[in-house]
Amino acid sequence: MRLHVDAILFDIDGTLVDSTAAVERTWRTWAARRGINAEEILRVCHGRRSEDTVAQFMPEGEQEAAVAELEQLELHDLADVVALPAARSLLASLPAERVGAVTSGSAALMTARLQAAGLPVPCVLVAAENVAVGKPDPEGYLAAAAALGVDVRRCLVIEDAPAGIRAGRAAGAQVVAVATSHASADLQAADAVIVDLTMATVTVTPQGLAVELVATAPVV
Predict the structure, then answer these.
(1) What is the per-residue pLDDT across 157-186, written as a single tens digit (0 to 9) for each?
(2) Which of 11, 18, 77, 137 is catalytic?
(3) Active site residue 6
């Protein structure tokens, strides 16, 4: 399977870095302090901004402080955050002007996680505080494409969570899902599903980027 695009827009958590254990630990700690069922939170938090998840469980007047507390827990829990397979080599092969990242986390947290995993921080990083509405809204991906100066329809979005897949599709981009944090069956809204980034090879061409995939589901 071969795609031709102008740029690649990556999610971060679950796509470039494995932070699942840290995410679950911090949410469980946060929930325990408030007597909230952590399992209910973990069912809805992946791929979404913390403030959007917190809003489901906390009164409006308490949400800002609760989000700030969660952020501090996350910033102090980086010990086992690691790069996912092939993330380092794939990023190294791409020109900086053809790479963006769109994340539901804050810029500070995502920078810390990328650095903890030994990965570069993309020049274009659209974080939670840079959008009015988080994933599955397409705002973040539209903003990243605009910052790179490319048509979002000529971008490839790589995501690991259903909310992010929906955001990429709504933006008009082609979307590939990596089955690193969710079962493939949960990712079928993507154009294609791959096991992880080892199944993707990118070649820089005069026209842009040629992406070859070993996919578990065909492009629709």
Answers:
(1) 999 999 999 999 999 999 999 999 889 999
(2) 11
(3) no
What tokens appear for 135 in the block? 């994933």
Name the DSSP letter for residue 186: G
Residue 204: strand pairing partners: 209
Three-state DSSP class for 203? strand
- The one-letter amino acid at 150: V
Q: Does domain 2-18+81-213 have CATH number 3.40.630.30?
A: no
86 CB neighbour count, 10 Å cutoff? 17
Residue 11 a catalytic site member = yes
What residue ranges of the chain are covered by domains with CATH 3.40.50.1000?
A: 2-18+81-213
DSSP 37-71: -HHHHHTT-TTS-HHHHHHHHS-HHHHHHHHHHHH
The active-site residue, picked from 6, 13, 18, 52, is: 13
Condensed to tens digits (0 to 9), the pLDDT of residues 67-79 reads: 999 999 999 999 8
**What's the pTM value of the predicted model, to 2 decimals?**
0.89
